[in-house]
Structures are given as structure tokens and as C-alpha cells.
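Please describe what follows:
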Amino acid sequence: MRTLLMLPLLVVACSSTTSSNEMNVPAPSVTNMPETSVSIHPIHHSAMALVWNGHTVLVDPHDGAERYKAYPAPELVLITDIHGDHMDPATLHGLDLSKAKIVAPQAVMDQLPDDLKARCTVLANGERGEEFGIGIGAIPMYNMPDPNDPRHPKGRGNGYVLTFGNQRIYISGDTEDIPEMRALTNIDVAFVCMNLPYTMTEQQAASGVLAFHPKVVYPYHYRGKDGFSDVALFKKLVNEGDPKIDVQLVDWYAE
């Protein structure tokens, strides 16, 4: 089980290793932190686990339930969009969801099997909710310049801002550097996508991040049609603009 970051102290213990896409990335080791911290576990592509105050949150679990066996059964599952690298009913059916609530946009709810619909609460862009003391804000995610681009039209999917106590985590979903992203404030950790032709270039992603200045940012969801985005370039561009932003390069595609 991989643990990359625990808030609020923002301490990372790591060494270098060679990833499946031939990029040197940190190999994490677990750091003991207060129980009120959020521990962040990158899993695969768009999927991650967040553990806080005894609660496990899974984001976009997909690509087989086996990937998630190292983590406690989730109390909360967040789904951003309808595509198979975000909404995967087969994976969801392979998880222990006996105590779980699912939060998703209406388009996801509409495509879930009936047994999963019964666990699902819909949040639309701009709406807020709370589960297990975790604040959940639904943020738009869409392509530009045409917000009706059928790949990711405005209003169909959700990015999320999650509030764990006084800690705020932004998960972009599939988006470009939209005004709603650029207007974010007080973000402790951001997960920002970049993969062509579906979402952003490295330059767009860096520009978006430099508009809202998170304390820490993870490039994620960076495998596109023709391979991997250059996350090292993204890190360079972000730190040229703001050297105080901690850019975490993690191999989201290690098998």
C-alpha cells in the first residue's frame, strides 16, 4: 500500500525509482502522523484513496477491485464522470460497499446499476454536501473553448473540493484550466489532470495551478492517446512560476 503524503505537516519521505514509463519518481515510505491528518494514496490513473479520521474515501475506483484490496472498505466513493476510467460498475461490485455512500453527478447516477443507485447521492456543479464530517463541493469540469464539447461538456461531470477539518483537497476530474479552477482559494493539495487529446497540455495545467497556488500539487490522469504527458516539464513550469508549490511526481501507472 502506497502512502505519499499526510497532512497537515506536508512531509514526504521518498527515494528515487524507475517507473513503468521510464520516469524517475518518488517511492514513498509511511510517515507516522497525527490521527487527524489526511493520508493520500495514489492508486492508478484517476483513482486514489484518502484516509482521514478512520474513514476511507475512494475516488474513481476502476480497473479491477484487486487494486483496492490493501485499503479498508470505503465509507465514501466519489465518481467524477461517466467514462470507464472514472465510473466502473464491475470494479464497484467487487468492492465491499456494505457501509459506503456514493457521491456522483446525475449523468453517473443515470448509468449506475440499480443496486449502486440506491447508495448514490447526486451533487451537481456548485452544490455542496457532507458525509462523515467530510465537506464535499462539486466543481465544474469541462473542455474549452467550447463548454459543450461532447468529450466533457460543462455540467456533466464533477471535480471536487473536499474539506477534512481545515484541510482542503481539490480533485480536478477531466478538465481544462477553466475559470472555476483558476478561482479556487486555500487549496492544500491539488490533483490536476493532463492528457491529450482529452484534457490539458502541460502548459495549460501549469497555468491553471499558478492561478490558484495550492501548497502541493500532484499531476495525475496523465496517460493520453499517444502516451504519457511530460510531468517533469509540468513541474518545471510550475516551479519557475512559484517555487513554493510542492510538485509531487508519482508513478500512477506502476503495475
